[in-house]
Design brief:
4 copies of one chain form a homotetramer.
Chain A (H helix, E strand, L loop, with lengths): L4 E5 L6 E7 L9 H12 L7 H5 L3 E5 L1 E2 L2 E2 L4 E6 L3 H4 L25 H7 L6 H7 L4 H17 L3 E9 L8 H10 L6 E8 L15 H10 L4 E6 L8 H4 L3 E4 L2 E4 L7 E2 L2 E2 L4 E7 L10 E4 L4 E4 L10 H24 L4 H8 L1
Antiparallel strand pairs in A: 1-2, 2-6, 3-6, 4-5, 7-8, 8-14, 9-14, 10-11, 12-13, 15-16
Helix pairs in contact in A: 1-6, 1-10, 6-10, 8-10
Chain lengths: 350, 350, 350, 350
Amino acid sequence: MEKFRFLTSGESHGKCLTAIIEGVPSGLEIDIDFINSELHRRQQGYGRGDRMKLESDTVEITSGVRFGKTIGSPITLSVKNRDFENWQKVMSVSPSDQTDDKAFSVYRPGHADYAGSIKYNQQDLRNILERSSARKTAIEVAVGAVAKLILKQIGITGSSEVTQIGAACCPDKFHQEIDLTREKGDSIGGKFVVIYKNIPVGLGSHVHWDRGIDGRLAQAVMSIPAIKAVEIGDNPLGFCGSEYHDEFEIKDGEICRTSNHAGGIEGGMTNGQDLVISAVMKPIPTMMKSLESIDLKTNQKAQAHYERSDVCAVESCAVVAEARVAWVIANEILLKYGSDSIEELKSRVL
Amino acid sequence: MEKFRFLTSGESHGKCLTAIIEGVPSGLEIDIDFINSELHRRQQGYGRGDRMKLESDTVEITSGVRFGKTIGSPITLSVKNRDFENWQKVMSVSPSDQTDDKAFSVYRPGHADYAGSIKYNQQDLRNILERSSARKTAIEVAVGAVAKLILKQIGITGSSEVTQIGAACCPDKFHQEIDLTREKGDSIGGKFVVIYKNIPVGLGSHVHWDRGIDGRLAQAVMSIPAIKAVEIGDNPLGFCGSEYHDEFEIKDGEICRTSNHAGGIEGGMTNGQDLVISAVMKPIPTMMKSLESIDLKTNQKAQAHYERSDVCAVESCAVVAEARVAWVIANEILLKYGSDSIEELKSRVL
Amino acid sequence: MEKFRFLTSGESHGKCLTAIIEGVPSGLEIDIDFINSELHRRQQGYGRGDRMKLESDTVEITSGVRFGKTIGSPITLSVKNRDFENWQKVMSVSPSDQTDDKAFSVYRPGHADYAGSIKYNQQDLRNILERSSARKTAIEVAVGAVAKLILKQIGITGSSEVTQIGAACCPDKFHQEIDLTREKGDSIGGKFVVIYKNIPVGLGSHVHWDRGIDGRLAQAVMSIPAIKAVEIGDNPLGFCGSEYHDEFEIKDGEICRTSNHAGGIEGGMTNGQDLVISAVMKPIPTMMKSLESIDLKTNQKAQAHYERSDVCAVESCAVVAEARVAWVIANEILLKYGSDSIEELKSRVL
Amino acid sequence: MEKFRFLTSGESHGKCLTAIIEGVPSGLEIDIDFINSELHRRQQGYGRGDRMKLESDTVEITSGVRFGKTIGSPITLSVKNRDFENWQKVMSVSPSDQTDDKAFSVYRPGHADYAGSIKYNQQDLRNILERSSARKTAIEVAVGAVAKLILKQIGITGSSEVTQIGAACCPDKFHQEIDLTREKGDSIGGKFVVIYKNIPVGLGSHVHWDRGIDGRLAQAVMSIPAIKAVEIGDNPLGFCGSEYHDEFEIKDGEICRTSNHAGGIEGGMTNGQDLVISAVMKPIPTMMKSLESIDLKTNQKAQAHYERSDVCAVESCAVVAEARVAWVIANEILLKYGSDSIEELKSRVL
């Protein structure tokens, strides 16, 4: 059983997104402003469309917190979909509201539509799209913010940065690359890096494959919608062994390293250096330019449906990855230190 | 609870490696020669050292199989360490045999030594090295061979190929690159691709992050010792959206795609195309050239211990990755079709 | 990973109880009236206090269901605490509302107070009581109702019955026993039986201890607040082997049994007979009569706090057990048949 | 992910039983004599048949332990089946040895035969019997002995006692009851209690149903072959609330209780009192007296096969339950204290 475990729910145009987190130590101060600021960060970024402006997400907490602190019981977070009133009928829970409005049947290349409709035996692709949408990452960021609050208590902090947009590796060129892409009615991906500092030695383990923190981080980041590649530390291609491995030295009486190519992980364990994980996001699969597809009703050629106007979401995606990395680290911290209250955790770590 | 679950054990120079697999459907023919041939494939590859020749691994099955077929109960696989007689005393289970022979105390950069010794409170780094060694992947390949036997029954087959060694992307240059590296007393990494064919639509899911098969594959591959990067399908950097996404077409009355950039996964689910996953292996961290390090006994500078003579193990690593991908697919197949016997599985899939 | 998995949350006097269920096949009709009728059943029963009348729980669904049917994505259920407006300040999430109103510090014997306050480092026992309260079983019953809806699709139905109240084994005497207990200001427990019919052969397994459905049922029922004993089938004490075991016979060409002492489970698997599981509930630990205790603030003798007026809740508890047994069976069904849609499930079971 | 996790394997007449345990802290002294003494205890008991005398089980450890101490890596235990040479052909892994010797096809009432053969699609019931046999509890006892070694380090100790055989509740009458049953060619069950002392406060939790230690204990004990009822503490039937709940008092400045009806668990958590769990074992379903059954080959009436000669195994079963309770407690200890080495564990608990 994981120590920091949770489930999330919610459709893109449903009433709200929800998460229940179970396993957070008691006594943790829950700073709602911080959670909201993380939600805000996710909605920013050059290249996002108009929906983002609509949303301005805020979280509501309905359990697990009393007078600003966790009490050990499961925490419920919810984020309303602000546009829900316009979608109430289309997304109704009730059978009596059934309508074909907003139904669609042309598979969008690059999306869950095709596989999802077969797997779940659905004719209206909206029933797949609504959950496969990246909208669900909003509540994931809220969960990550709670994980970050745990980590902060023991001095662990994280950040992220976009390192490439399309072919552009220089930050000065990112906006230009996005503008050009928008003009073409196309979309574009990119690469980002997430860095966490002040990580204790020995999270994860070498003793069994599924305890490796590298694998757990890779799972958490690769499963973000649109991520297709994940790297830990520096990509070793082009290095030989004597260049790549991080040699030890003693500085001011402390053991340290002369480099951090390994991204803070050796043998599936954190080694005390900064944790560095990068990922590549594919171009958003919904774009102005239409793609060739099939209509599942007629089995004939058709143009894929256009629903959303982001050109590039790499900055937002980096925020989501930061959140997910926080989940993994928080879980590993609680597995290693096993604490029921934040006071106990601090006494064991510090 | 996973459907195809297992634990592995064994030290590099211990008596044997063992695995128990639980959840394999009954009635599956277990072809021991096939398992052994997979073990053999793992031991091949240009650039491996002498120990590989010693080993020539073979598997013994001690439970779960009767008259050549599984009976539903857990399967025990074991692979002897052929050199054990020379290590019996050094690796003895018994306290009375305790010795300092083969103890070592200089952290090897790039290995689990440093973090592992702190985490597990060990002074003799052999107590970490013995399990962190890639030797344990032998039994993982045996487990993967069992998974492949399940997959074969429903027509799914896998293979792998080395695509880069160091800077060389052309297979003709791989041996040369390795030879040059050996001459320098150095080591070298590379990249490989694993491909599985004939995958049903709808393994994994978009509905919850931890059901995504992309994340599960990434975990399984990234946690292989020495892997630092994982990609699913083509790396999207440099593609714009209209180029990257795999358009639909109808060919001979069947829905198909004009490309497979996505590597067979959209929305965290298999889409019926070939599953394509690549990974980058770092150079082996043990090499003739010594690296700067620290002796944990003296806290003084020291040269990292040299134990093994492989220059390059990318080919072997690809075989390990093939095995691990087989685990993930087999588990997903059994989650989706949920079968207790192989006959039941076939009737549901085919 | 379990197939029917969920988390629940919510404090007894918080805003609401919530559950997220993940893994329900798509295409399942969600009959909200049925869920509400199960919630209603839980609130009935001779011996309950006044709060029950206040509550009259109803469920709201905010995700996972569209036009009356599941779509494969996680389902969110919530049940409001009707009395919340009176508790808003006492149960506030916000630090600025902090108050000592309703704080208490005398451990109640038979409750989680003592262990919980130590484990979670809490001085106000309300922070334990609010979650340990049986109030949380309301949302569990809602989750069970969803499980029952799955089971109904394949013809499986459940019911429960109180079989003993205190020393009274005859239903005619139950009300009398409860009335006498109320007069004394005391509380009383009892025993009930849960029966599910039309169970397929082979849920659970003999091959590994944690696959046994008997163990999983026992966990689900024993962890209901106040349950102290669980039996599957008839208690074997007093039977010898030749009397206890259920012999086979052929009736109308079908294999059947001459008895069902085993309660439908042999070797950790369902055998096609009715599933029969009984449990014993302890007397409610909050009662008019006070119990000797300690005040954690003073470490001095004190009388345990009195909060609630139920005398006997065995009938309600049976409804909770029915719900939990439904979870276990639904999970086993989905593990065995592994279906993504209800159509697929029906085609595999029937 | 559980902290103390393991898989077991092995058929009753196969080569050996095996277990791999993953998650044991490093630095734990493994006393093989203690493990063997636990295996011996399991084989004792008035009422057992001759096979027990044959067996005299001893454990071999092939991984995870060096010089008498654990090193953090998975531990492999194996117990040989001493009679294997006589069964080699019948239980051969190889297809070429296939034989009908020892095949059988008459379902034994009370066993896994019927459900197992349908679930796993087997015609030879030996393929079910070999794993459903209680023989597999030998390796479970070995796993439990390792768990006990962890517990001993922090002062936790366990024991068990038979409290009823058939109708006899007085130990003086147990042998007589067994002798009478043997004379009748019948079998008999009974009841036992397992007690663990010196348990820390706060194992398990009230915050989510599946964290309750009562449920986890019930699962572990109810899934022992032949167990049909489990109780924690005193069965509350016949007590009213004011009698049952364990009042607090202060003695020598320490908080303690005036009774332990709750068996050391309130609100799903340990409360620092002795952990008390009882279970009822059904009569062994294989006995001299034959039972009415069906032959699956002919679908005709037949007499159930007789394989084994135990009359009563309640004493042995109590030893198995002790072992399983040790698993659960060890897992909870490691979840709560989360330690990687035994030194770390001791520093956190003591």
